[in-house]
Amino acid sequence: MLSSPYPTSGPGPAAARPLLSTMQQDASFGELCALLGIQHQIADLSDEHRLPRLRVRNCQRIHLAGQTCDRIFVVNSGILKTSSYVYDKEQVMGFPMRGDLLGIDGLLNRSYHQELVALTNATLIEIPLDTLARLGRTHGEFASAILGVMSHKLARDHALLSMRAGLNTQARMAHFLLDTAARYAAAGYSGSSFNLVMQRAEIGNYLGMAMETVSRTLSELQALEMISINGRTILILDPVALRAMRRSPRRRRLQDGAKRA
């Protein structure tokens, strides 16, 4: 039985845990470290403890905001969405992909602050918190390596806030496309041609722009021959120009508009 798709309002703290499918083949400690990119920091990757591997389907929730946090997750495959809710209004926080560590927002008071939902069929490795603590005790380097992964995530979140506040719409879109391309490449896929599985409204929510602005901005980048669009497929044509554009501040667009006026 699957949980229902997107909520009509922000989920409350009394919400029950969604039912998830556990795969028969568990993940090893070495596989977990490789997925997080920390295998070279661990002296001994041998560990008999096995970690549950979860299979989730498109639109299925993994956890809800306000739900008790007793485990964290690492994405093995697929694309997901994290969201927070303020006064029942959704704010998209990110689109996790392979290798991303999820659920750490719930570690402070053992309650998730964000909702996690799959945008495609996906698999995740589950790390119960008691297992996380045991691995930290038995593998000294693991605890510091995990802190490094968490620090990297915080830096990404801070960069997102700075991007929303300081860049114009074209620059924000260029940043988003280049970041998505790099993450596809890191996962072993093409970094120049990829699908945007998320809805335009979700992208706009994430970047701080209206859905119509998302479509218009993508069309503008295509007219400038920086990208090509075919349905949901994006082809990066000029990454150098995109990298230059993503540094354009908001005031530059305002100044350009004043000059045209």
Summarize the helices and strands and which ones pair or pack:
Elements: E1 21-22, H1 29-36, E2 53-56, E3 61-63, E4 71-77, E5 80-86, E6 89-94, E7 101-102, E8 115-118, E9 122-128, H2 129-138, H3 140-166, H4 169-186, E10 193-195, H5 200-207, H6 211-223, E11 227-230, E12 233-236, H7 239-245, H8 250-260
Antiparallel strand pairs: 1-2, 2-9, 3-8, 4-7, 4-9, 5-6, 5-8, 10-12, 11-12
Keywords: DNA-binding, Transcription, Transcription regulation
GO molecular function, one term: DNA-binding transcription factor activity
Organism: Pseudoduganella aquatica
Task: Describe what you observe in this structure.
The chain is built from eight helices and twelve strands. It folds into two domains: 21-157, Jelly Rolls (Sandwich), CATH 2.60.120; 167-260, Arc Repressor Mutant, subunit A (Orthogonal Bundle), CATH 1.10.10.10. The termini are far apart. With 261 residues, the protein is of the alpha+beta class. Helix content is 39%, strand content 20%.
Q: How much beta, percentage-wise?
A: 15-25%
CATH superfamily of the largest domain: Jelly Rolls
* Main sheet properties: 5 strands, antiparallel
CATH class term of the largest domain: Mainly Beta
Domain count: the total is 2
- Averaged pLDDT: 85
- Biggest sheet: strands side by side, in what order? 1-2-9-4-7
Q: What is the overall number of helices? A: 8
Rounded Rg: 20 Å
Quickly give the CATH architecture of the largest domain: Sandwich
The N- and C-terminal alpha carbons lie at a distance of: 58 Å
CATH topology of the largest domain: Jelly Rolls
